[in-house]
Design a protein that fits this description.
CATH superfamily of the largest domain: P-loop containing nucleotide triphosphate hydrolases
Largest sheet: 6 strands, antiparallel
Helix content: 40-55%
Shape: globular
Strand order of the largest sheet: 2-1-4-5-6-7
Strand content: 15-25%
Distance between the termini: 26 Å
Number of helices: 11
CATH architecture of the largest domain: 3-Layer(aba) Sandwich
């Protein structure tokens, strides 16, 4: 899978721009706040119809404009797929092969991506919501039906929580049990998909982590489900508690991931270096896991992460990705990038203007 071309119209600080990409490595070079990350964000938006930086769509639209569009051409093994995502006054419109997709699950997965950014450290040490978003995004790219179940679960959860805000004397527990059934129908599927994904992710990440640490550290990843036995029974048992608290206290919306090195919780007791290595191991593991599950390697987006890694980890990241994935990398300097291939594209970015560097300047 390769992203051959992308075109932006009124996206962030870009009025209109079209870029053609190298099938292996593309580097966006420039100082901070010039628009490098916006290109990677646009690729992320094209793939998932969402930004990885903001949940407010209006922030993606260029100043004083009302609409924006990101389009691209994806090359797969036996076909070429035009993709397009628009934000308009009528909402979000996603098209694949020029046809509008009415369901998100039908669109997601056309362009598979893997984002690695400084905020990925939050995967290890951040709030549980960060790790749940990680699970939803990655599992959703592999299994489209997961997105449908997640959407239906969130809708049922919103309805149940709204009902729990009623005065307790007005709450009918029989009706609450009906809401429980809607929640468990999709919640159980989410839990099963997440648990299966984490088990496979751990296998790949464990091997990679041992290589990165020369066999000194053993990585274990645990899916900490808030549902311990039977989701339906646990919901029923917590009716009085939930009515008192006005919210649903058990379910996959409260689940988490835990990372252990030599049986020690990395978030609580690991060094920053260990947290970085765990994050890197997980991201490298995803490359092969996505290929194993879908038969396609994802596109790798590296947003200003090379300066966060020492030379050996930079090399691990580049060597693992090259030859497998098409890679997009942002950086303020090439000085810390070692062993780059000769065949690549470098784009100079300055004040929202992008110019491909001449070959002799590589």
């Amino acid at each position: 899978m390769k992203l051959k071309q992308i075109e932006l119209k009124n996206f962030r600080n870009y009025e209109q721009i079209q870029l053609d990409f190298h099938p292996q490595l593309n580097i966006f070079l420039g100082q901070n706040a010039q628009g490098k990350t916006n290109i990677l964000e646009a690729i992320h938006f094209l793939a998932l119809t969402r930004s990885h930086r903001t949940s407010h769509d209006k922030e993606l639209i260029r100043w004083n404009e009302q609409e924006m569009k990101v389009s691209g051409i994806v090359e797969k093994a036996h076909t070429t797929v035009p993709l397009e995502v628009q934000l308009t006054a009528k909402g979000r419109i996603a098209k694949a092969n020029h046809l509008k997709e009415n369901r998100l699950a039908d669109y997601i997965g056309q362009l598979k991506i893997l984002m690695f950014a400084p905020e990925n450290l939050e995967l290890v040490k951040g709030a549980p919501a960060v790790r749940r978003r990680f699970l939803d995004m990655e599992v959703g790219q592999i299994h489209a039906v997961y997105l449908y179940d997640a959407m239906r679960y969130n809708r049922a959860l919103k309805e149940r929580n709204a009902y729990l805000k009623f005065d307790k004397d007005k709450i009918d527990k029989a009706f609450l049990s009906v809401l429980d059934e809607q929640l468990t129908e999709h919640g159980n599927k989410i839990i099963q998909e997440r648990a299966a994904f984490v088990a496979k992710l751990e296998q790949h990440a464990r091997n990679i982590h041992q290589q990165l640490t020369h066999g000194l550290e053993d990585l274990r990843i645990s899916y900490a489900s808030h549902v311990k036995t039977d989701f339906a029974k646990e919901l029923s048992a917590r009716h009085d508690h939930d009515i008192f608290r006005h919210q649903t206290s058990v379910g996959p919306h409260r689940d988490d991931l835990q990372f252990f090195i030599n049986d020690i919780n990395v978030a609580d007791f690991g060094s920053q270096g260990q947290q970085r290595t765990v994050a890197l191991s997980v991201k490298l593991a995803e490359i092969d896991l996505i290929f194993e599950e879908t038969g396609e390697y994802p596109i790798l987006l590296l947003d200003d992460v090379m300066s966060e890694l020492d030379n050996s980890r930079q090399l691990d990241l580049i060597e693992t990705s090259l030859g497998k994935t098409q890679t997009f990398l942002t950086t303020t300097t090439l000085d810390h990038l070692k062993n780059l291939p000769e065949n690549l594209n470098i784009f100079n970015v300055e004040n929202g203007k992008i110019k491909e560097a001449e070959k002799k300047s590589y």
